[in-house]
Amino acid sequence: MEAYLPSGTFDVVVVNLYPFYETVSSSTSISFEDGIENIDIGGHTLIRAAAKNHKDVLVVVDASDYPALLQFLQGKQDSEHFRRELAWKAFQHAGSYDSVVSEWLWKQSMGGERFPPSLTVPMTRGCSLRYGENPHQNAAFYIDRSLSAVNGGGIATAIQHHGKHTNPCGVASRDDIIEAYRLAVTADPVSAFGGIVAFNVEVDEDLAKEIREFRSPTDGVSRMFYEIVIAPKCTEKGLEVLRGKSKDLRILEAKKTEKGMLSLRQIGGGWLVQDSDDLTPQDIKFNAVSEKPPKESELRDAEFAWTCVKHVKSNAIVISKNNCMLGMGSGQPNRPESLRIALRKAGEEVKGASLASDAFFPFAWNDAVEEACASGVAVIAEPGGSRRDNDAIDCGNKYGVSLLFTNVRHFRH
């Protein structure tokens, strides 16, 4: 037995779903009942039904498609292609909506369980790119829209940061942002050239002019060149100045990464999903295990170096002084090689500086620890945990170096 409503047929179905994502992700806490109330049912059903029958029914879920819809209705669009495109978009929209609802329900019902049996991360294409890591690789950038936002990484606690190939090559923190910028460039101007410059403060006109006109310390003549400038915000004047620096300069606004996010990394045929390594020096206890405790200023430098080394590819060593990174060694298959690179970059300024290692030193004598102590560093901060920790402590005592154990490792691959 079939029943029909005397309503005729539909040519177009336009649906705006309940704003579930906006409701449950807002800063205002809502009750479980309010969350359930904001799950759309009827609209979702209409979308799927219309999308399945797209050869006869147009389905629109995005207001940006309204102009194209009007053109189509006026006979100015290719029928089959346009209908299929809208249907695809409708199913994508419905799937993303369902994934957010599913994630929210998991969080509400599973208590402290962090990782669900299955995981869907809805993403929206933010922009197409000129290419990926290499010119022969086509690429696009996608923005995550899940509730457990994916962590893209970054260094947010330092005021100014230069990066190259995902490694910070210069970092400095000062009350005066222009001074911090100059110090960060000076740390490694060769590597900074053609890289990324990032700030955790607004880029105003004065800072933008400094970015545009600052000369490389290598020759005092060449203007520093960057591919990307990143900041929480740019003033209108600052943006105008930066755009005049280079037509190819990309200017990105990035919010500070929140703690407690998940990190996703592709590995072989799957993905590693893990808690983001978002610990700060305030979360870590720097335990002095040597006879000589660090001075307050040396401890602050050790914390700064620790903040930096977390963002450097392993094996990683960072040397800092006065809230400025002096040298960095990264990506070497053994720790002594990373140490030597960092020492070479730091030069004579290594005397009295603080050194941070992202993992423990497996050997001390005639190895990295003794080489670091002999260089003149005042403090070494490392996780500890080696079977030869006592050798590292004895070596520090011999050279009068303060040794700090953090009990936290910061591998980054």
Automatic annotation (TrEMBL):
List GO terms (cellular component aspect).
Answer: cytosol
The keyword Transferase is assigned to this record:
yes
Gene3D superfamilies documented for this protein:
3.40.140.20, Methylglyoxal synthase-like domain (3.40.50.1380)
A GO MF annotation of the entry reads: phosphoribosylaminoimidazolecarboxamide formyltransferase activity
Question: GO BP, one example?
Answer: 'de novo' IMP biosynthetic process
Pfam families xref list: AICARFT_IMPCHas (PF01808)
What keywords tag this UniProt record?
Hydrolase, Multifunctional enzyme, Purine biosynthesis, Transferase
What's the protein called, per UniProt? Uncharacterized protein
Species of origin: Acorus gramineus
